[in-house]
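Support case: user asked for a sample of complex input and structure output to validate their parser. Sending the pair below.
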Amino acid sequence: MAEVPSSPLPIEQRRPLSPHVQIYRWSGTMAVSILHRATGVALYLGTVLLVAYLLAASGGGVAFAQVSRFFGSIVGQIILFGYTFALMLHLFGGLRHAVWETGKGFEAGTRDALAWGSLIGAVVCTALAWAVAYLL
Amino acid sequence: MSKPSSLQTPRARVKHLGSTRSGTQTLWTIRLTSFALLSRADLASARALLGAPLPAIILILFVLASVWHMAEGMRSVIQDYIRSQHLRELVLMANLCFASGVGLVCAYALLRLSFVQ
């Protein structure tokens, strides 16, 4: 980790530094917040899946067969499932932030309800999306 | 402790760091594009669907909103975690290259699906 910058000021005049993440007791809001950023980065990298799929579809024939085979394989399905879940978590995390931006939902109870709600919503929507994909 | 005349740290004041007055702009960009993403279309596997006008237009909109959103989001992640200025600027450039590359290639593929049989 990066070291704390040294300060010429005497200790009592230094600005308070925020403790590192390991210091805090874990909470639901914190977990969902970290997951929001982590899923954002994962979704960012995962756009190569969309690129591969669209390029293959536009290229047609052999390329499309190869990409379809990969997405249809067990590994491909697990990756796609993870991608769906990450997308849903990020989506509900974004909705949580949208609620906060109206200035509401910061109370202790509401905060936790929003965290759990976004987690449950993501699980339910992922399950729904895959049920629809498999049943239709 | 002397009474602070501003919320900036002395170090930040010397280095002219502080509000750039552009934070809200970024926030709105991320927010608006994320709302745009809510109306995303389902990716059907059929080429016929991808080549039909309405899905193609919606998908191009989705792709453009996505890459804009993810470039802005990744920018804030990079600015948070990379302390070395030179490395940060390099990674910020890489971010723009990746995001615009993804956007352009997806747009190319979608247009090709619409216009090339």
